[in-house]
């Protein structure tokens, strides 16, 4: 996460005597506003590690070129 996010203790995980304490998140959780951005950053990093390039016109389109003029486009 790029910012600090705190949340109340989830039901079933509350520590007796410390019910008013909050949890600081170290990773994104499903349902957070930041979750889609975090998922895209991880996906983008994976695609780059596999040899794909992100197009400049649309950052959701990835392309991989091969030496024999073949290519793969992923949307």
TrEMBL record:
Q: Which UniProt keywords apply?
A: Nucleotidyltransferase, RNA-directed DNA polymerase, Transferase
Cite a single GO MF annotation.
RNA-directed DNA polymerase activity
Please give the InterPro entries that the UniProt record associates with this protein. Answer: RVT_2
Q: Which domain of life is it from?
A: Eukaryota
**Boundaries of each Reverse transcriptase Ty1/copia-type domain copy?**
1-73
Q: Does the keyword Lipoprotein apply?
A: no
What is the recorded name of this protein?
A: Reverse transcriptase
């Amino acid at each position: 996460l790029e910012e600090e996010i705190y949340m109340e203790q989830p039901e079933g995980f509350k520590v007796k005597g410390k019910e008013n304490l909050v949890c600081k998140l170290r990773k994104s959780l499903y349902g957070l506003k930041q979750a889609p951005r975090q998922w895209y950053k991880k996906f983008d990093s994976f695609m780059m590690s596999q040899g794909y390039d992100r197009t400049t016109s649309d950052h959701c389109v990835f392309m991989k070129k091969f030496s024999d003029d073949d290519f793969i486009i992923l949307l």
